[in-house]
Write a structure and sequence with these properties.
alpha/beta, Rossmann fold, 2 domains, seven-stranded mixed beta sheet, 7 strands, globular, AB_hydrolase_fold, BEM46 family protein, palmitoyl-(protein) hydrolase activity
Length: 248
């Protein structure tokens, strides 16, 4: 009888050990490989080398830039001027893209902003995305964002311009962090947040359901929920798609 019980217990240990092993693997992947998951800069294939250009979308008045960061990276960017000079206003939109693809995929939006609204548009590409150098992470992307707004402030052509931050998804978190740090400068006239999230840890249950219990291991935080209340002098427009399958 004792032998039978021992045999049964040994069989019961197998699924327990397998489950523990799977949990350990998932924990390791989430902790050590989370940058690859959160910043899928190679999706879709070719995103690091094939960046659509403004002329492909009927945008003619633009510059391709490589902007240096204080920590030695080079950020690819498009600076776009309004095509309708009669409609042009002294406002520059600093665009921050989502976590996949590159700035070229967002050019149709930039065209609306410059053509229909008369704004200058600076489309900044994070480190490790498209033709930019480096590897993305939370600290690095915030350096990139500050580099972008400093570029606008230093460019003589844009002297006195009103700055509007426009962030999509991950770019919304970037915008929130940048606005909180720079609001006292007085030149940020507004912020547009499109389908952004409260924090990466709170996003995990909907974006990666199997890893919901491992969210505390996430070291890429993006604490927008805590940072947003600190912004008290900048008007904010929230845009949200009810059919968004990733950001609830």
């Amino acid at each position: 009888m004792s032998s039978a019980i021992d045999t049964l217990l040994s069989y019961l240990r197998v699924p327990v050990l397998a489950s523990s092993g799977l949990a350990a693997v998932l924990s390791g992947l989430l902790y050590f490989k989370q940058n690859e998951i959160i910043y899928p800069r190679n999706i879709p294939p070719g995103s690091r080398t094939e960046v659509p250009k403004p002329p492909q979308f009927g945008i003619s008045d633009f510059e391709e830039l490589m902007i240096p960061t204080p920590d030695g990276e080079s950020l690819s960017a498009f600076f776009i001027r309004p095509s309708n000079k009669q409609l042009a206003i002294n406002t520059t939109i600093l665009m921050f893209h989502g976590n996949a693809g590159n700035i070229g995929y967002r050019l149709p939006i930039a065209k609306v902003l410059e053509q229909d609204m008369g704004c200058n548009v600076l489309m900044l590409q994070y480190r490790g995305y498209g033709l930019s150098t480096g590897t993305p992470n939370e600290k690095g992307l915030m350096i990139d964002a500050q580099t972008g707004i400093d570029y606008i402030r230093k460019r003589a052509e844009l002297s006195g311009t009103k700055i509007v931050l426009y962030g999509q998804s991950l770019g919304g978190a970037v915008s929130i962090g940048l606005a909180a740090k720079n609001q006292k400068q007085g030149d940020i006239a507004g912020m547009i947040l499109e389908n952004t999230f409260l924090s990466i840890r709170k996003l995990i249950p909907s974006a990666f359901p199997p890893a919901r219990y491992l969210a505390p291991l996430c070291h890429q935080i993006w604490p927008s929920e805590d940072t947003l209340p600190l912004i008290n002098s900048i008007p904010i427009l929230f845009l949200s798609g009810l059919k968004d399958e990733i950001v609830p």
